[in-house]
Design brief:
- Chain B: It is a peripheral membrane protein.
- The complex is a heterodimer of chains A (280) and B (318).
- Chain A is built from 13 helices and no strands.
- With 280 residues, chain A is mainly alpha-helical.
- Chain A has one domain: MetI-like (MetI-like fold, Orthogonal Bundle), CATH 1.10.3720.10.
- In chain A, helix 8 runs antiparallel to helix 10 and helix 11 packs antiparallel against helix 12.
- The longest helix of chain A has 37 residues.
- Chain B is built from ten helices and twelve strands.
- Classes of the chains: A mainly alpha (280), B alpha/beta (318).
- At the A-B interface, helix 9 and helix 10 of A face helix 2, helix 3 and helix 6 of B.
C-alpha cells in the first residue's frame, strides 16, 4: 500500500521530477567513488582554475582538483550530515513531544518553555553557539544541527499527541487496562508520525543549507574532505578568475534543496496533511 | 452475593456534585439497566466504577464501590489498571471511533489477551478468532487482518465487544452500546449481549436511555434522574407498575399502537443541569404529582416489594 502510494506521488510532474533529482543525488552520495571521474583530493597544480572542458566537465579549483568529482563526493558529506542530524532530531523530538503531550504537568511546562525559547533564535545561531562549545568537525555539526531542529519536532509531536489523546480509541485502550507505554508507542506515535516524517523530510533541505553555511565558515567537514559549503567558501577568492568554483556547488545545493521541498510538497498534498502541519 | 455493590456513591467535579447517593447492585448472570435522560449521571456512574473520573477532573466524594469483595474507592491507579479489561471491561458509546484506525482489527483484540492473560501471540490470535466467531462475525480469519475502515458500524461494535471479552472479565459496563447503530443492528447487538451474559455468567451493566432496549434485555433497572436514583426494580415491575412519577412518564413516552394519531408524549421541561439542581426532590418542577413537601425535602428511599423508590408519594407515614 505504501509502495503504491509513493508510485502515485512519483507520477505527478512535481513529484516525479523532484524524485528523479533526489535519486540522482542519493546515488552520488552512495556510490561517489564509483561515479566520480577523479579522486576528490587529486591535485594538479598546473591545471588549476581551468574552465569547464571535455576532461573536467565542471572545471577545476585552485588546486586543480576536478570540481565534478568534488561535488559528487560533497553530496555524500551533505546528505550524511543532514540525514543523520535530522533523524536524531526526529527521534529525540518525538520522544520529548510525546511524553510532554501525553503526561502534561511539570515536564510539559519545562519542555514547552525550552522549545519556545529555542524557537525564538534562528537555527544557525543555535548551531554556532553549540559548535563554539563542542568544537568543529563532522560529528560536532551533526550534533549541533540536530539540536537546532529539535524544537520543531518536539512541538509538532506534542501538538499531534495532545489532539490524539482525546480520541475515543485512545480512551478505549486505556479502559481495557493498557499502560502508558503501550498507549504512547503502539497507538499515539503511529497515528502522529505522518506529519512528523514529512516535516522531517522538509527539514533535511534546511539542514543541507545549514550544513553548507557552517561549511562555508569552515566549521564542518575538515579539508580535504569536500563539502558544498566549504567549496563555495574557497571559491570566493577566485570569484572573478574562476566563477565556476563557487557557481556549481551552489547549484548543487539549490537543486537538491528545491527537489526536497518539491517532493515534500507533493507528499503533503497526497497525504492531505497541510492543516495538521500548520497547527504547530 | 452481588458482584458489584455501589452504595451511597457521590461524585464531585471541582465544586460541583453531579452525582450523589447512588446505590445499586449488579449480579452475575444478570443484566442491570442504568436508565435516564442525558445528563442524569449514567456515564459518570460508569466512569466512577472504572476509576476514570480523573480524566475529567472528578473524584468520588462519598460512598463505596465494592467489586467482588474489594473496595474500589481510593484504589491506586496501578492496581486499577490490572482490573480494567481483565475483571471489568467498558464498552464505550461510539464503535465508529473506538478502534485505532491504523492498527489491524485482530491486533487490537489480541493486545487485550496479550496484556492480561500473558498469552503467546499465536494463542492470542486463535482466541481472538474464536471470540469473533462466537460473536457471529463472518469470515473471522480474514477480518482478523482487516483495518477498521473496512468494516460496517455493526461489525465494529462486535469487534469492540470482542475486545471487552478478550480477557474474560466478570463485569461488563456497556455505555449506550447501540446508540450509534441502525435499529435493526441494535437488536442484533443487544441479543448478542443477552446471549453472552447467559453463556458466560457475566454481570452486565447496560447504560441506555432507550426503554425498548431495557424491556428487551434487562433483568433489573436503576432509573437515574439528575444524579440520584429515582427508582430501582425488576424490569417486569418497572413496566407493570412504575412507582416513581418519572419512571411512569419515561414509560409513557414509548409510542404504543393504540395511541391517538399524531400525539407523541414527552416529559415537559428538561433535566436540570448540575449548576441548578432544584431543592428537595429534583424531579418536582417537572412532576405532575408534585406536592409542597417535594420542593422542600429530599425524598427518602423506601423499600418496595421487589425494589425501592425515592418519592414522597411512597413515603411510609409513621
Amino acid at each position: 500500500m505504501a509502495l503504491r502510494f509513493l508510485w502515485g506521488v512519483v507520477h505527478t510532474p512535481r513529484g516525479g521530477a523532484s524524485a528523479f533529482v533526489l535519486m540522482l543525488v542519493i546515488a552520488c552520495a552512495l556510490f561517489a567513488p564509483l561515479i566520480a571521474p577523479y579522486g576528490y583530493a587529486l591535485q594538479n597544480l598546473p591545471g588549476s582554475n581551468t574552465s569547464p572542458n571535455a576532461l573536467h566537465w565542471l572545471g577545476t579549483d585552485e588546486f586543480g582538483r576536478d570540481l565534478l568529482s568534488r561535488i559528487i563526493h560533497g553530496a555524500r558529506t551533505s546528505l550524511t550530515v543532514a540525514v543523520t542530524a535530522i533523524s536524531i532530531s526526529v527521534v529525540v523530538g518525538m520522544t520529548f513531544g510525546a511524553i510532554a503531550g501525553y503526561f502534561g504537568g511539570m515536564f510539559d511546562r519545562v519542555v514547552t518553555a525550552v522549545v519556545d525559547l529555542t524557537w525564538s533564535f534562528p537555527e544557525i545561531l543555535i548551531a554556532l553557539i553549540l559548535i563554539a562549545i563542542i568544537g568543529t568537525g563532522t560529528e560536532s555539526i551533526i550534533i549541533a544541527i540536530s539540536i537546532a531542529y529539535l524544537a520543531q519536532f518536539t512541538r509538532l509531536t506534542r501538538a499531534q499527541v495532545m489532539a490524539l489523546r482525546q480520541e475515543t480509541y485512545i480512551e478505549a485502550t486505556v479502559n481495557l487496562g493498557a499502560g502508558h507505554f503501550h498507549v504512547i508507542f503502539r497507538h499515539l506515535l503511529p497515528n502522529a508520525i505522518t506529519p512528523v516524517i514529512v516535516a522531517g523530510m522538509l527539514a533535511i533541505g534546511d539542514a543541507i543549507i545549514l550544513e553548507a553555511t557552517l561549511g562555508f565558515f569552515g566549521l564542518g567537514a575538515q579539508p580535504p574532505i569536500p563539502s558544498w559549503g566549504a567549496m563555495m567558501s574557497s571559491g570566493t577568492a577566485q570569484i572573478f578568475i574562476a566563477p565556476w568554483i563557487i557557481l556549481f556547488p551552489g547549484a548543487a545545493i539549490a537543486l537538491t534543496v528545491i527537489s526536497i521541498n518539491l517532493f515534500g510538497d507533493a507528499l503533503i498534498d497526497a497525504l492531505n496533511i497541510r492543516s495538521r502541519l500548520r497547527d504547530v | 452475593m452481588a458482584l458489584l455493590t455501589v452504595s451511597g456513591l457521590g461524585v464531585t467535579i471541582g465544586t460541583l456534585s453531579p452525582l450523589d447517593d447512588v446505590s445499586f447492585e449488579a449480579h452475575k448472570g444478570e443484566i442491570l439497566g442504568l436508565v435516564g435522560e442525558s445528563g442524569s449521571g449514567k456515564s459518570l456512574t460508569a466512569m466512577a466504577v472504572m476509576g476514570l473520573l480523573g480524566r475529567i477532573g472528578g473524584r468520588v466524594s462519598s460512598g463505596s464501590i465494592l467489586f467482588d469483595g474489594q473496595e474500589l474507592v481510593g484504589l491506586r491507579d496501578s492496581s486499577y489498571r490490572r482490573l480494567r479489561g481483565k475483571r471489568i471491561a467498558l464498552i464505550s458509546q461510539n464503535p465508529m471511533t473506538s478502534l485505532d484506525p491504523i492498527v489491524r482489527i485482530g491486533a487490537q483484540i489480541d493486545q487485550v489477551s496479550l496484556l492480561h492473560l500473558r498469552l503467546s501471540k499465536p494463542a492470542a490470535k486463535a482466541r481472538s478468532i474464536d471470540l469473533m466467531q462466537q460473536l457471529r462475525i463472518p469470515d473471522a480469519e480474514t477480518l482478523h487482518r482487516a483495518y477498521p475502515h473496512q468494516l460496517s458500524g455493526g461489525m465494529k461494535q462486535r469487534i469492540v465487544i470482542a475486545m471487552a471479552l478478550a480477557a474474560d472479565p466478570d463485569l461488563i459496563i456497556a455505555d449506550e452500546p447501540t446508540t450509534a447503530l441502525d435499529v435493526t443492528i441494535q437488536a442484533q447487538i443487544i441479543q448478542i449481549m443477552v446471549d453472552l451474559v447467559r453463556a458466560r455468567d457475566l454481570a452486565l451493566i447496560l447504560i441506555t436511555h432507550d426503554m425498548g432496549v431495557v424491556a428487551q434485555a434487562c433483568n433489573r433497572v436503576v432509573v437515574l434522574y439528575a444524579g440520584r436514583v429515582a427508582e430501582t426494580n425488576t424490569t417486569q415491575a418497572i413496566f407493570a407498575s412504575p412507582c416513581h412519577p418519572y419512571t411512569a412518564s419515561l414509560i409513557g413516552c414509548i409510542p404504543s399502537r393504540d395511541q391517538a394519531e399524531g400525539t407523541l408524549l414527552g416529559i415537559p421541561g428538561t433535566v436540570p443541569g448540575v449548576l441548578n439542581y432544584p431543592k428537595g426532590c429534583r424531579f418536582h418542577p417537572r412532576c405532575g404529582d408534585a406536592m409542597q413537601v417535594c420542593a422542600r425535602t429530599v425524598p427518602p428511599t423506601t423499600a418496595q416489594p421487589t425494589g425501592s423508590v425515592a418519592c414522597h408519594l411512597h413515603e411510609v407515614v409513621t
